[in-house]
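Data availability (excerpt). The following record was deposited with the supplementary files.
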Amino acid sequence: MHELRVGEVVPLLEISRAWLVDPVSRREGPGEVVVRDGILEAVTWLKGAAADGIGPDGVLVLPGLIDLHVHLREPGNEDAETVASGLAAAAHGGFTTVCAMPNTTPAADEPSVLARVAGAAAASGSPVELLAHGAVTVGRAGERLAALGELADAGVVGFSDDGSPVKSATLLRNALLYAGMLGLPIVEHVEDATLTSGAEANEGLVATILGLKGWPPAAEIAAAERAIAVLDSVRADATGARLHLTHLSTAGALAAVRRAKAAGLPVTCDVTPHHLGFTDEWVAGARRWAWEALDESGVARDPWADGALVAHPYATACRVNPPLRGAADAAACLAALVDGTADAVVTDHAPHTAVDKETEFGLAVNGISGLETAVGVLLAAVAAGRLSLARAVAALTVGPAAVMGSRPGRRGAARGLVEGAPADLVVVDAGDDWRVTPEALASRGKNTPLLGRELPGRVLVTLAQGRLAYQDPSERA
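Predicted structure:
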């Protein structure tokens, strides 16, 4: 493809002998695609001799990915990220739709703040679709509900006080009732703050040895169970009420969701790549994948005993909320993704400045910059045989779209590989690794423990609504 500027309609893109994955039609296999004047003109599924030698370890063509949970920092903290740099990072990661969380300064608790964010997206020239969640409470202070109706009219796709839980069960109940009438979900950050005050790392062996204050799994489990109980109490009065629990990290919280779904409650949840792929031993200096930290019987290995510690301890890029958990919890996150308990994978992209991260571990702000590395982490799990490619792609497309309640043709919808529609897709070379470096990241936030690591799955091209969102420099003719 000839070099184009971001935002330009793609005149012609032909991709031959690729592996196509379309979670909308639930089809996967060898194929070819042609994009002409921004339209997906042809999708050809190959059979027989024409398909020989084509597999999922080569070039992949996927629908554009959707991220339910990103922090773009604008307005208020543009040193860490702007809408423009965040959308560029999304495109580099293969995402064509992202949903911004409302913990900006000021918080997105009224339409004027949303208008500022939308204006910044338009000014960026990026074709990546930017959606937004509105705050549940005024200023995210947890004292009184925001004007949810006005926020809904302004186009939010959900409500969240993310970064903090909704403080009281009464407020959460009222929010579920109100949001249910509006047909929108409450996206809840589940954390019992009375159990996490001053906490620094997951409660367990690593925190004990490193002298860090433990962050107990019970803080997440108890909050998840509370939120589900509140949902159960309102469903008779608000049949449209929906609860989504975001960035779950513990086996106990995921088990609570599994039980609630079995009981017919309208609850969904997501997990992040870093809670699937990393463990708390990364804080101590390990850099092996979470599935490598368990022995054949499923027992966590001791990183001090088996030589897994290869980096300096206390890397603040590993400080995140919720914290990186033990290997058993990471395995539970992966299992929940495989069996469908976890509806989606979200990056919880949380960029920060070096000033906020380069300090003592316990004083560093929480967050990992994750938009550009999510595909690589999931492809590593696929390569290890822990996750199917089809399930990974579904969790990044139809899964998040369903959580938002999106329908075909509406905002946030998973578009699939549909002939005659504007091309919304990402081309990934699954057989080519790329090195994560500060220079390689489009995000202003370089706070990831994956710096210096080779990841599978180099994104070659991202098209959003027929326009160029990202093109790898090596692909420019």
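Summary of structural features: The first helix runs from residue 83 to 92.
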